[in-house]
Write the structure tokens for this entry.
Amino acid sequence: MPELPTGLLRNDQIVTTRAVLDQHGHGESYGETSLPDAVLFPESAEDVARIVRFAAERRIPLTPVGANSSLEGHTVPLFGGFSVDLTRMDRILEIRPEDFLAVVQPGVGYRSLNEAARHSGVFFPIDPGAHATLGGMVSTNASGTMAVRYGVTGDYVLALQVVTADGAIVRVGNRARKSAAGYDLCGLFTGAEGTLGIITEITVRLVGVPESASAARVPFPDARRATSFVTQLVQAGVPAARCEIIDARSVHAVNAFAGTAFPEQMTIFLEFHGNPAGVAADVALARDLASHAGALGFEAASRREERERLWEARHKTFYATVAANPGKRNLVTDVAVPISRLPEAVASALEDCDRSGLTAYLVGHVGDGNFHLTIFYDDDQHQQVEDVAHRMVSHAIALGGTSTGEHGIGIRKLRYMEEEHGDALPLMRRLKRAVDPEGIMNPGKKIPD
Ligand SMILES: Cc1cc2nc3c(=O)[nH]c(=O)nc-3n(C[C@H](O)[C@H](O)[C@H](O)COP(=O)(O)OP(=O)(O)OC[C@H]3O[C@@H](n4cnc5c(N)ncnc54)[C@H](O)[C@@H]3O)c2cc1C
């Protein structure tokens, strides 16, 4: 047990009770557990800086934690030490609709930010399925159902305050919408999974709430036709704001969980944003393309409550599938491929699961070539699940894609870094050593030793 930073924090900011250690010893959908020696709850950048200086002097590993919803073992404190839980730093410091920006502490959830911005005509358009924190989202470069139109978290980071591995509090970036000054240090810390520093304040760009929106539900007989439709939609330049796939099994689970009555078929969920005339034209073109691609129907919804119900159901998919498989373990994994290779990547992953006798659920942000499988299994099927996930990732890389479109590397995907990055990996290692020479920042994640 390392020395605790008593005297540097109040007693209630240092927790060693078994329940809290357990809670911080594992992540979502990652089987292995490793407990921290203590969980620290900083309430300011100065608290974080004191923690980091204390840990750096004693070479104690630090694992930053937000909502702990990451899926690849990102927050599991492999080497013990302190979990640094940022959720008490949850203040929205500023919302400036006239500059389309907000300044928040890292523990603010994106839904809370949007709730606070609701009446200002602006919003933050990245919406991962879980109620993730902005600190975690920046650190995983998260995206969500609207990435096809609005991009990923990294596209919205204007400035950061970061406590670096020597305990210094550093500001990077500014409030301008663009800048050509210096190295892009916001980009360096974005997606770093807590391995380069601890983010203590975030300035994000916001966008205007669209004047008009419409959603559509488009069922298909199979995955190949559904994903071919998406490819044609993107190639035709239809600016969908959301373009999601859910398979029949997932729709069934959502209906049972959320009390909805969606037809239980392979379904593409769409949403369009813009002015009323533009949205109507987009819906008409999508309807045409869907019919040519073999859709079984096309149901549009423009009322706000209808659209919200549809997306709320979509966001519950993971929890619906967990409820449908009591007592089973699950593995969630995501890949992304060039959009034209999507039909073969999805079909091959689903066929592989079927051949291996595994129950898998398909959901995905297919508008940007990104899909996820959630596979449920019993203890004795662990190896089969790992093998299927491995083949899915290897296939995506072979198609010119990536081992993860949005969930990140964590621990489980370390094995693909060499294959995916080759010559760039030594440079990444040099960067890590330069910024964190003692290796105390979330060791064992993101970059293989
Ligand atoms: C049901 C479900 C649906 C999901 N859907 C999506 C999706 O659509 N898109 C998507 O991208 N992801 C999705 N995810 C994954 C997850 O929600 C995202 O990775 C999210 O960004 C993690 O945020 P968090 O606050 O939970 O971070 P955590 O899980 O707590 O941490 C994530 C990583 O960031 C680091 N970190 C956290 N806070 C800080 C900080 N302040 N400074 C430095 N490092 C920090 C941690 O060390 C860790 O490496 C989903 C997860 C679930 C369970």
Q: What stands out?
A: The pocket of flavin-adenine dinucleotide is lined by residues 28, 63-71, 74-75, 86, 106, 128-130, 132-133, 135-137, 139-140, 142-144, 193-194, 198-199, 318, 406-407, 442, 445 (CB under 6 Å). The CA atoms of residues 264 and 321 lie 14 Å apart.
